[in-house]
Each structure stands twice: as C-alpha cells, then as structure tokens.
Amino acid sequence: MMLPKGSSLSPKMFDLLNSFEENMAERLRKIKPPGKEDILCLTWMRSAMELLCEIHADIKVLITSLELPVCDWEDKWIDVYLDNSVKLLDICIAFSSEISRLKQGHLFLRCLLHDLESASPKKFIQARSSLDGWKQHMASKNPRLDNIFSVMDSLAQTLDLPKIKNSSKGKVLMRAMYGVKVVTLLICGVFAAAFSGSSKKLMDLPVPETCLWAQAFSDLQTCVNSKIRNTDPEKALVFLKEVESVDSGVRKVYPIVQDGVENPVEAQVLQKLKSDLEKAAGELCQGLELVAKEVDGFFQVVFTGRDALLSNLRLVGNVFEQGETSLNVQGPPVR
C-alpha cells in the first residue's frame, strides 16, 4: 500500500521495518484468547491495553532507529501525528471516566455486603436501598462514552496516510504508524463496546496482506468482533464478565432481602449468596484497578510522545530563528 511494487528500501530500512512488523505480529498473537469466553473480561482488557502501550513504545524506538530528525519530517506527517494523538488522549480520558463510574458503583456493593452481616429488618431496609442504588447507578449512562465512536470514526478516516515520494525513511515511518493506528482502533473499539454495551459501531478493518502482522490482526479481529456481536445486549448492563457476575448476584439477593429471612434455611442461602457476591465484587474491583492502571499508562505513552515532538519542533524553530538573527547582525555584505 505504502510500499508499492517496484519501490526499494536499503537493507537497513528493510530490516527495521520487518523487525517492527514481526514484533507487532507476535504481540497480537499473544493476546488472542484461547476461547471466546475470555475476551470480554477485565483480564483480557488489561492485556490488550498493555499491547497498545508496547506498540506505541515500539514506534518511538523505530523513529530513533530511523535517525529521522524532526526537522526532516514533512508538515503533513506532523499534522497526522498530532491530530491522532489528541484523539487518543480523548479516548483515554473517556475510558478512565467509565472505569471511575464503575468503581463508584462498587461503593453500593460494599454498603450492601456490610448490611447483610445482620439479618435484622432495619439492616434489610438499608440493604434494599443499596441494591436500588446499584441498579440505578449501573443503568445510568456516561456521556463521555457517546463521543468515543465519533472520535474513532474520524481516526479511521485518516488510515490512508500521505503518499511518500522521495524518502525511504518516511515510507517506513508511515507504514509503521499505519499498523499502530489499525491495532489501536481495534482495541479501543473493543473497550468502547464493552463499556457501552453496544456492538453497533464495531469496525471490521481490512489490512493489506503485505503487512507481516496482517494475518495475526485478522485472526484477532474476527475472534473479538464475533464474540461481541453474539452477546445479547438485553441481558447485560455492559459487555463485561465481571459486571455480569456481580449483577447476577445482585438479582439473586434482591428477593430475599425484599421478603426477609424467616427460617435458618433461608439464612444459610442468604449467606451463600452473600459470599458469592462478595467474591464477584472483589474480582470486579481488582480488575478495574488493573485496567485503570494500564489506561493511565497508555495515556502517558501518548502524551509524552506528543510532548517530545512539540518540544523538538520548538527547538528547531528556535534554532532557525537564531540563525536568521545572526545573519541580520552581520549586516549587508561588503561590496
């Protein structure tokens, strides 16, 4: 696509590109889950966000290896990079916001579990209040998520990177950036679907077979998209296994809390349900903490890369301005 037939790269450039694409293919193969049931869970999402951090770090290493200083970057490359980085930062902020919302819901579960320590009618009234609070909180929508899909659509529209004519280093850089963007769109699409409970905006991104990571990407995309599309949105608040487990426990506890406990058998059943719910709530809270850490790490990777580019651009501009000043100080040439 960006390296059409007939184009040639030096052995060094060819090796750099191959190494980058082979590493990305290996990373993609590692996060392909063994079973479809392992996709929509916080453990997989943590691994997927780790992948994004790694490949965005890889692109930084590639830029250094290319020995392509910012002063040699074309304006259109810089514009693409800066525009994309802003969109990725917006996506990270939205994901962090949704994770925080889910963690706030966990507060209702803590209150509920505390109230269930006693079978007194007063505590059951408080438990019902916590249950209602959980249900209402989880049914609410996060407005930040609404903007994610439009941001991702705009990112997808920039997949056709600028044509590079006379720079082999530029061709390698643009092709590597294309790969990073495609993988980023896939992972962010899964996150957006999992958090929003909607598969309507999932993307099926075709990639050229000439990319060494094409097969690994296609396998992963088919796996995750088919699982999400086969999930019934009417049966889940969000497409997350941990949230579904907690919600299932809440629905089982609710009728007992509402009707009260009248005999030892019902008391034993309640304690078993409470234990199961406590375990599910703990797994949800721990999973959210780990994913939140990775999302924050991805934000930092994107932000530091953008900041470094802007700093280099300012440095180049200052050097250029100083050069012009020194020429002016010398005055007109002697004739």
TrEMBL record:
A GO cellular-component term linked to this record: membrane
InterPro entries linked: ROH1-like (IPR008511)
Coiled coil spans: none
Membrane topology per record: Single-pass membrane protein
Chief localisation class: membrane
Subcellular location: Membrane
UniProt keyword annotations, A-Z: Membrane, Transmembrane, Transmembrane helix
Keyword Amino-acid biosynthesis attributed: no
One Pfam entry name: ROH1-like
Similarity annotation: Belongs to the ROH1 family.
UniProt xrefs under PANTHER family: BPS1-LIKE PROTEIN
Designated name of the protein: Protein BPS1
Organism: Salvia splendens (Scarlet sage)
Lineage of the species this protein comes from: Eukaryota, Viridiplantae, Streptophyta, Embryophyta, Tracheophyta
